[in-house]
Amino acid sequence: MNISQVLDACENDLGWVPEGDRLTVRKAQFTILKHAMTKHGFTVDDLALAVAWAARRRLPIQKPIQLIGFVDEARAVAAEPVVVHPIEDQISEAIVWEDEHPDADSRRWVSRLIRAMGPARWDVLVEWRQAGRGPKDS
Length: 138
What we know:
mainly alpha
């Protein structure tokens, strides 16, 4: 990834909208990010990590320079070991969560989680999480 791709990700993934002439604003933000990277000792990979971290948390940004403030946290999260539970465990945990937090949509979600087969199981689980269901631990 290069700085131009980081700026693309800021627009596409983080909701940044360049104000004014897009090309002129992008050139200015490119220079600002390049200077900040040098000042803080960050790499483009650090910025890419920050973009991914902010996107997972759905954090909108006003300007790409805000990524600099996300780098340390993104590095810390990236350094944590990733624990991947088998899909069966994740589906079971989702069903238990729905049972413990009943609302108008719980029956529909439990039904979908139980009935999903093959690769669709993962798709339903992802959709369930994107719908804001489950524990809010991240």
